[in-house]
Amino acid sequence: MIMSDDRTIREVLGRMADEAPPALDLEELDDPVVIRSPRRTATMRPNRRTLTAVGGSAVVLLAVLAILFASGPTGDEVVLVGEPVAATAAEYDAALVASIEELVASPGVEARERAFIGGYLANVGWASIRSNGDTLVVLQSDVDVRDTAWWVASSSPPRVGENIETIAWALVGNSYYAATASESWTVADRDEASRGPMSFALGLIHPDYRSDFLPMMTAPVESEVTRQDTADGGEVWVMSYEIDDSPVRGRLRIHAAGYLAELSLLSEDLDIDPADFGAPIGPALVSYRVLDDPDPIPTPEAGTPLDLDDFDLPEGFGFGG
Amino acid sequence: MVSYGEMSESGVIQPDQAPSVIVDAYRRHCDGLVRFATVLVGADDAHDIVSSAMVRVLEKAPNVHDPKAYLYRVVANQARNLHRSESRRRAREERVPRARTSAEVPEPYPEVRSAIEKLSVRQRAVVYLTYWEDMTDGDVAESLAIGAGSVRRHLARARAHLRKALHDHE
Description:
By secondary structure, chain A is of the alpha+beta class. Chain A is built from seven helices and twelve strands. Chain A is globular. Chain B has two domains: 1-99, Rna Polymerase Sigma Factor, Chain: A, CATH 1.10.1740; 107-170, Arc Repressor Mutant, subunit A, CATH 1.10.10.10. Chain B starts with 19 loop residues before the first helix and ends with a helix. Chains A and B meet through α1 of A and α1, α2, α3, α5 and α6 of B.
């Protein structure tokens, strides 16, 4: 019966294909004005145009995409207790917003993120923010992984670890500071400066950016949502839905104190159109740590070179860790 | 970005300026690409899909190791994002005769055809490449730029739908 079924399906497909019009010579093809549409009107949109508008730089675009469509394990060691309880997308969103508000209300927050493209580490980010808005951000990217569109030729993996870009910027008082590995610190007026690339982890909690980033992380109404307790008194929320038949899972881990401790969005086989040079997105993870009594953000000294040892970066930060 | 597949003011591709590997691949596989597009979006839109795909491919001129798989992939992606100009479509329909229509060749298994048409574009692509092009899971995965596991999952779901339609037919 199965063979017969397959034969029938094949025959029907053949008849459908036989309806094809004659192929045109290349010279006969013209611009068909095919307009690309957003894949879905969900609140969290995998849409390059939207993300570009939010970020405005390749660093931001790829980092955000990577986080939105991360796949793979998060690597944490959270002990879940009891059974997952069904919840709604609205409840998921409420938990997300409330846990971010807890972060924002903290004296200080340290954020960390790692984003992969096609399984290769592309971007790492670290940010520290104070309740007065003072901020320090360090971003590193593997330029060969991030920018060379190596994923278009699927048989050619990128060079790795040979071209690492480092950018740092800070908001302290009324000043904006920026530096790269090759350009010393510069200083400008905080409100007038053209700011550097954004860290997604920071964007979600920083008052200047949160309204742009938060809507991308909420659950589409059709999502299946569960909530489960953790052994240390926190909660894990999971939401899942499909984009073009590919499952997407969002996951929040909320600390017992109520703040967002981890955030990730996981996908299986979700591809970005290679004809758009969109990246095949690999695992990524954002994590937060509340600082109860933080030191002030250090003020960079204009004209001096960037030295990451000046900052209290977490152990293992960067491409070597 | 360098654009190898230049468009004239009339919007017509100038193949003499396009990379030969892409041009050769198109010329070898254009019939198959149009048939593939027809299964994905129907005969009326097949040319739009293939044309749009080729415009994008020639504009990007990627250095691909398997041009055939890449062309199929871009056609499939274009099919998933089809929105087209009605006026252009009408003009094209007047210019390009269709080979045959379903009205001319009665479908003995209308339930199966209807079930195929209800599959998502990606599932339809997986089914067509597997059943008609006799591709392996790996080849389909390469052509659609998805994982082999995803191919098997799409195929299993599609088969379940199609076999239910077949049994309903009986």
